[in-house]
Write a structure and sequence with these properties.
The chain is mainly alpha-helical. Helix content is about 80%, strand content about 0%. It has 17 helices and no strands. It is a multi-pass membrane protein.
């Protein structure tokens, strides 16, 4: 189905509205939260790494059972509840800041609980998309969703930086809270009916369900390879996130407004990558593009830590732009592959297994980045992170190097 026909689908537009709004808010607060920690609470690299790690710890703790639970319930109520929970949690930050009692500890706790809600949302969302679009439209739908959502990545950081300068970082986080509420409302407006989840006479045990999802991934060579590549990339991103704001604000001496602009300019390529993914997939090959998107852009992403005050700050823009482009193309093609071929009855468990394997290392990566930031400095830490990005596509290349298109892949099980 063409993009034009997709956008005429009311349910797709509602899905798009909710995700675009929450993505914009996420990008605004993505600048505000670390700047709040660094500029207002004077966080060290380790403390900033702790805040970052806490936001994804839930993937390692409840990621697998979440998939089994999601497969037993309808997905939309899970998504709505997750959005509402995150809206309420984030709203506590500007409230305590107003009262003068905000601490790093609270940021850690809010990040931790919001991470729990995010686990259910991410697993449920990727499992919900085929119910709204149909399996034959997931690539076009994911591409359109990511393209419009990426527009939030373009304007969000710039708006976030300007709002931080004008209002203060704590107040800006309220924007994210509101956008999660808007997302919940948009999801409630979707009319598509999910298939009724059959209720077994005997309630299935949790571990056998989890084991079935793990077994499917373990038996599927391409899933094992993409899980390893994604986990390496996420570990690298987590390391970098622990020191990025410190590097930009303290090492390069950039103001919040300029930091927001730098990130926004780099994110323009995410929108371009999302728009170009279907075309690249057709011309390069729907299987080949999965590893090639990372292999070509990874070396350019290593430019970031070589930036210096002055015009060499442009290296940050170049590196972030290349990284955003490669990651968005990889994410769309990889997720679409899984949504297309995974059996419907266990899509939630397989998605949760992949998210567990991919995101489980994120907290460790953030803590590692914080510790390395203390020991060797932010710049050297970013070099280590960039090197990991370069090697991340090797497992996928080894698995898919002989295949051009997804349809030509061998049987999955």
């Amino acid at each position: 189905m063409s993009d034009e026909r997709l956008f005429r689908d009311r349910d797709f537009r509602m899905l798009l509205l909710g995700q675009t709004t929450s993505q914009l808010g996420a990008q605004v607060s993505g600048v505000a939260v670390p700047l709040l920690a660094v500029l207002t609470l004077d966080a060290s690299p380790f403390e900033l790494g702790l805040v970052t790690a806490s936001s994804t710890l839930a993937f390692a703790v409840i990621g697998l059972p979440a998939g089994a639970w999601v497969d037993q319930w309808r997905r939309r109520p899970i998504l709505v509840a997750s959005d509402i929970a995150r809206a309420v949690l984030l709203a506590t930050i500007p409230l305590t800041a107003l009262l003068g009692i905000l601490t790093i500890t609270q940021l850690v706790i809010v990040s931790l609980l919001s991470g729990v809600a995010r686990v259910f949302f991410d697993v449920g969302y990727q499992s919900y998309i085929p119910s709204v679009l149909g399996r034959n439209r997931v690539l076009a739908g994911n591409s359109s969703l990511e393209m419009v959502r990426a527009s939030g990545q373009v304007v969000g950081p710039g708006i976030g930086g300007a709002l931080v300068a004008a209002l203060g970082a704590a107040s800006v986080i309220l924007v994210q809270s509101v956008t999660f509420a808007v997302s919940a409302i948009a999801l409630l407006a979707i009319r598509s009916t999910e298939a009724v989840v059959p209720r077994p006479e005997v309630r299935p045990r949790l571990w056998p369900q989890i084991r079935e999802g793990l077994g499917f991934v373990a038996r599927t060579r391409v899933l094992r390879a993409t899980a390893l590549a994604s986990a390496t990339g996420n570990f690298s991103f987590a390391m970098a996130s622990a020191v990025n704001m410190i590097f930009l604000a303290r090492t390069l001496g950039l103001s919040p407004v300029v930091i927001g602009m730098v990130i926004a300019v780099g994110s323009v390529t995410a929108m371009a990558g999302a728009a170009l993914t279907p075309t690249l997939s057709r011309r390069v090959g729907s299987a080949r593009i999965i590893w090639l998107s990372l292999a070509l852009t990874g070396p350019l992403a290593l430019a970031v830590p070589f930036a210096q005050p002055g015009w060499l700050v442009l290296l940050v823009v170049v590196g972030m732009a290349a990284g955003e482009f490669g990651q968005i193309v990889y994410a769309i093609t990889n997720v679409s592959l899984r949504q297309r071929f995974c059996p419907e009855r266990m899509l939630g468990r397989v998605t949760a297994t992949m998210r567990f394997l991919i995101m489980g290392l994120f907290p460790l990566g953030a803590l590692t980045g914080g510790i390395l930031g203390e020991l060797i400095g932010p710049r050297a830490t970013l070099v280590v992170a960039g090197t990991l990005v370069i090697i991340s596509p090797i497992p996928v290349w080894l698995t898919l190097r002989g295949s051009r298109d997804v349809d030509a892949l061998p049987a999955w099980t």
